[in-house]
Amino acid sequence: MSRRRKFVAGGVVIVAALAYLIWSGVSQSVVYFVTPSELLAAPVPSKTYRLGGLVEKGSLKWEPKSLDLSFTLSDGKASVPVRHKGPAPDLFAEGRGAVVEGSWTKDGYFKASLILAKHSEEYKAPREGAQPGYKELIKSLRGDDGK
Predict the structure, then answer these.
(1) Superfamily covering domain 31-117
(2) pLDDT tens digits, the chain, 147 residues: what are they?
(3) Handedness of CA 82, 83, 85, 86 (dihedral sign)
């Protein structure tokens, strides 16, 4: 085999290996966003999903000793029970939107590894006198002692 053919064959092997590594990395990191209706239509156990919906009122249960959090996400058509080990985000509450990342289990619930609480996209600056103690808070942050 000539030197040129060896060089081309080596290049093809290197390019093929890089292409495989890129393909496998991208395919493993893809996480699909689904609604509860879409998930229940064709659940695949152990596949990673991002599930979005509203936390149903009366479904939130928190066990502080074991850090077990359970609730139900709904899109208005279907509801999915969700379990999470760990604390919930500050903005997480019943009747509010949430996105959870995790997988469907064979036991019929969604096991969340991450909870993202949805919040308003509008920022409203506090107005003068709108919040009691606003001026005192600003003074304490600046280090002013009222002097």
Answers:
(1) Nucleic acid-binding proteins (2.40.50.140)
(2) 788 888 888 889 999 988 888 877 766 666 778 899 999 998 888 888 899 999 999 999 999 899 999 999 998 899 999 999 998 888 888 888 899 999 999 999 999 999 988 766 666 665 665 555 556 656 656 665 555
(3) positive
